[in-house]
Design a protein that fits this description.
By secondary structure, the chain is an alpha/beta fold. It has 16 helices and 24 strands. Helix 11 links the parallel strand 16 and strand 17. The longest helix has 15 residues.
Length: about 475
Amino acid sequence: MFVKRFFEPSIAQASYMIGCQRTGEAVVIDANRDVDQYVSAAAQEGLRIAHVTETHIHADYVSGSRELAQRTGASLCLSDEGGADWKYQFPHDRKLKHGDRITIGNVTLDVLHTPGHTPEHLTFLVTDGAAADRPIAAVTGDFVFVGDVGRPDLLERAANFAGTMEAGARVLWRSLQAFAAHEDWLQLWPGHGAGSACGKGISAIPSSTLGYERRYNWAFQITSEDAFVKAVLAGQPEPPKYFATMKAVNKSGPAILGGFAIPPRLDASRLPELLSRNALVIDTRPADQYAAGHVDGTINIPLNGSFVNWAGWLIRTSEFYLLVDQATAAARLEELARSLALIGIDRITGCIDAAAARGERTIAQITAADLAARLPHVTVVDVRGANEWATGHLPGALHIPLGYLAERAGDIPAGRPVVVQCQSGGRSSIAASILQQQGLGAVSNLAGGITGWAAAGLPIESDTHATTAGR
């Protein structure tokens, strides 16, 4: 048996190719849109991709299963579980039910219906028939992660299916109880690693065993359904806005890309005209460079490991432009086109040399001591997530998570200077650029965020009382 794990860091997503080296056949599970990587890997190993399948209708990225099957001539096998509302709405070759089997030479994948994260979710039990008659591993998708389980609230919180959150949690509990009956040695190959919003505490370790998870995964330690429901729904992070779009796209049928569209390069002389008609222009330089001088009307999303996440949150239009360092433009443009296509942003309207973005507008950086001296005469906007806010926040701060800031900027009181703040200063730099772009004049960024504030021994307020950090 041949196994290869593909991991996409920008979305913390894992997919798998499993092959039989005797017959030269392979199956790919949970392909993302970069289908070339699977085709290349199969060719290198002398394998033919015979089947393409996935564990469920994904919400956090656009599936590449449809395109990969079309490209290779493979049989497209998709879940037929969960009821009428959870059916794939585009043609595919085989509808999978609990108890079905996919066979590639000596290797078998037995289909388990494991609902909870979503109603149609499947897990695949993998048996290497050349060596054993019992499963060696389970491809668990978003059912069981290393250290966590798939969140059952996304259908309600991200896709607006009201009333599904608690019901999903109870179904997930029952799925876990049934799955726990398998052998300790069963390896678990999950669909996500640390950094994914599909769970609240996913480990960075790529795989585990059921025996280990039964002992150390919090979800297997709870002994009652009601307690599990309460625990699994508590503390889940805010789902990015694009999750609802991904769910609909993957259900109805993702577009066939045939490769990633490299955006055209535009002359910097276009920039004033674009901004005059309120086009979305994103400066991708590091936050400190942007703060030191940028063109008024742009927003800042630095081109780092969090770029795809915040682009998914903040790009809500089909027309947008990127300011990119031209010294590395060729490689970066291809990388950007690929990364954004993974989450359904298939076309970047154009790119402009970031050298033209070094304008006169700045973002002031304020220290914790200076901010403390100015309170309560400024409005502090905390742009962290709800879970972070609950652990403690600056006294009197207004809480608006970054992903919702553009639409809730009107909640910020007028007529006072604004200081934006996050954990250490990264997200608040993006937030400051958004508020400037929306017309707020006096906007500063708290350097070091609440981490720096706490290190200075300044007071932190919880929901019930204020404490003084470090004392």
